[in-house]
Specification:
alpha/beta, 7-stranded parallel sheet, 7 strands, 42% helix, globular
Length: 209
């Protein structure tokens, strides 16, 4: 199965989402490969740090840019799960990846700049579905405030009602320091002993699968 993590905007937790899904699937005994299709190489750097720790479940990693369709289809024959971290913009990697993926997860922060990217994202999704009509698309709120007095999440959920091609997940990812700590050590939050963050990632995986 090919799961593409893609967004129109950088800084929305795209790479964090991709690597944590990898860690959860690998830790559950699945054969996983991570495709870093973002030239910032955040996911690939995480994978390099991870491989040094032999106690962790293996997450294989390849880097591929430009037209990634054929690479994804090939890897899909070799691995149980192919998790793709696409560049955070309207990129060739994102568009070609969408023609091959089974699932697209669109992370976005509950902020106006991120919400402003959704109209164009929906247009790209509609075009991709002309070529890949079986593509399932999920929206994921990331980096949500932990302060219950801030209501950005509610506003974001209301906004997504205008984009029927993006099914908003019930689960959201909070802005927790443990996500940043895990990234720097090649870990997933499911391996960090943080119950709240672990539950978030496990629930995201359950919802999309």
């Amino acid at each position: 199965m090919i799961i593409l993590i893609g967004s129109q905007k950088g800084g929305c937790g795209k790479s964090t989402t991709a690597v944590n899904i990898c860690a959860e699937l690998a830790g559950s005994g699945h054969d996983v490969v991570l495709v870093d299709a973002d030239r910032q190489c955040t996911s690939a750097n995480w994978a390099m740090d991870r491989v040094e720790n032999k106690t962790l479940a293996a997450v294989h990693c390849v880097q591929k840019y430009e037209n990634i369709r054929d690479t994804l289809l090939d890897l899909d024959q070799r691995y149980e799960y192919v998790i793709v971290d696409a560049a955070g913009r309207d990129s060739r990697e994102l568009r070609t990846g969408m023609t091959a993926a089974h699932i697209l997860v669109v992370p976005f922060r509950p902020s106006q700049p991120d919400l402003d990217t959704l109209p164009n994202m929906q247009d790209i999704i509609i075009q991709a579905k002309d070529l890949n009509p079986a593509l399932k698309v999920f929206g994921l709120i990331t980096m949500a405030p932990t302060n219950p007095m801030i209501h950005e999440e509610t506003d974001a959920r209301d906004c997504l009602k205008d984009y029927p091609d993006i099914h908003l997940l019930t689960t959201l990812i909070k802005d927790r320091k443990v996500y940043r700590d895990a990234m720097s050590d090649g870990l997933g939050v499911v391996e960090m002993g943080n119950d709240k963050a672990t539950a978030e990632i496990k629930n995201v995986v359950k919802e999309i699968l």
